[in-house]
Amino acid sequence: MTETPQTTSFDHLADERHVLLTTFRRDGTPVPTPVWLVVVDGVLYTSTGVDTGKVKRIRNNPAVTVAACDIRGRVHGPSYAARARLVEGAEGARIHQVKSKPYRLARLVDLYEKLIRRHTIVGIVVEPGL
Fold first, then answer.
1. CB proximity list for 91: less than 8 A, separation 6 or greater
2. In this predicted model, which residue has the larger pLDDT, 32 or 49?
3. What is the 3-state secondary structure (H, E, C) of the chain?
4. pLDDT for 41
5. Which one has a higher pLDDT value, 94 or 124?
6. What is the mean pLDDT of residues 52-70?
7. Backbone phi, then psi, for 23, in 5-degree steps?
8. Domains of the chain by start residue, with CATH
């Protein structure tokens, strides 16, 4: 098994449009998901619906990996070990708003989420290292 490199900041991912956020099931199986992101002060922020699989997996195990990728999840950089935490309520909504601002498609997805799926949004804060 290869060792995942460590980093102290995700500033080098600030120009990326997507990252592959890999969460882990209870049995240790990795589940990679491409996500939109925003990097502020070396910390990666993203958001998703509160009832998604990645939220459930982060609640059970905050250890994740992050790698630069394209929209289809094809990785084009190293994968870094990180720790994720969930942020709900007003702070989670603010993270979601900041993350969605640079992405036009994200605004359409937001509209779909609000009108059709009607589920709560949760922010995900991904900090370097374990």
1. 123
2. 32
3. CCCCCCCCCCHHHCCCCEEEEEEECCCCCEEEEEEECEEECCEEEEEEECCCHHHHHHHHCCEEEEEEECCCCCEEEEEEEEEEEEECHHHHHHHHHHHHCCCHHHHHHHHHHHHHHCCCEEEEEEEECC
4. 86
5. 124
6. 96
7. -105, 170
8. 11-128 (2.30.110.10)
